[in-house]
């Protein structure tokens, strides 16, 4: 069902400093920040030859990433995103197999402009999983 790894998301307390480390220290291609108000985050994508890194920073105090950073002040891996061909079919199969889809199960548009869903971390070995339709 899942395809390639689309990105690894890292919550960071200082978005500009994190982006500079990837650009200046590691020599990566760093995209401009983009606000995603529907998800409560500002994101910066780091382009790699085989995948992407998504740096996440809270956009407002009620951001879900704010809670993550409150528990992990230095930041850390927030989620993994896998590609799927049909997000509704993936959702239905996962639910039938007992996995919990966060929210009401309706896909929302993610940072790449494509439908996304999140899966409960307790069902995936403590890892929050994002599915993105390609």
Count of individual beta strands: 9
Parts with pLDDT < 50 across at least 5 consecutive residues? none
Could you state the oligomeric state of the chains shown? single chain
Q: Globular, elongated, flat, extended or rod-shaped: what is the shape?
A: globular
Major β-sheet profile: 9 strands, mixed
- CATH topology, anyone? 2,3-Dihydroxybiphenyl 1,2-Dioxygenase, domain 1
Radius of gyration: 15 Å
CATH class: Alpha Beta
Q: Going by CATH, what is the homologous superfamily? A: 2,3-Dihydroxybiphenyl 1,2-Dioxygenase, domain 1
Mean pLDDT: 97
Amino-to-carboxy terminus distance: 12 Å
Estimate the strand proportion.
35-45%
Level of helix content?
Answer: 10-25%
CATH architecture annotation: Roll
Number of domains: 1
Number of DSSP helical runs: 3
Give the SSE order as H and E letters: EHEEEEHEHEEE
- Classification by helices and strands: alpha+beta
């Amino acid at each position: 069902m899942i395809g390639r790894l689309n990105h690894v998301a890292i919550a960071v307390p200082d978005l500009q400093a994190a982006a500079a480390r990837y650009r200046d220290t590691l020599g990566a291609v760093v995209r401009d920040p983009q606000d995603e108000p529907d998800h409560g985050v500002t994101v910066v994508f780091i382009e790699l030859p085989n995948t992407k890194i998504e740096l996440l920073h809270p956009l407002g105090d009620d951001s879900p990433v704010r809670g993550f950073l409150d528990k992990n002040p230095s930041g850390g891996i927030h989620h993994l995103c896998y590609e799927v061909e049909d997000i509704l079919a993936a959702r239905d199969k996962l639910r039938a197999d007992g996995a919990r889809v966060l929210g009401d199960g309706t896909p929302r548009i993610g940072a790449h402009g494509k439908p996304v869903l999140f899966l409960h971390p307790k069902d995936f070995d403590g890892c929050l999983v994002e599915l993105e339709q390609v």
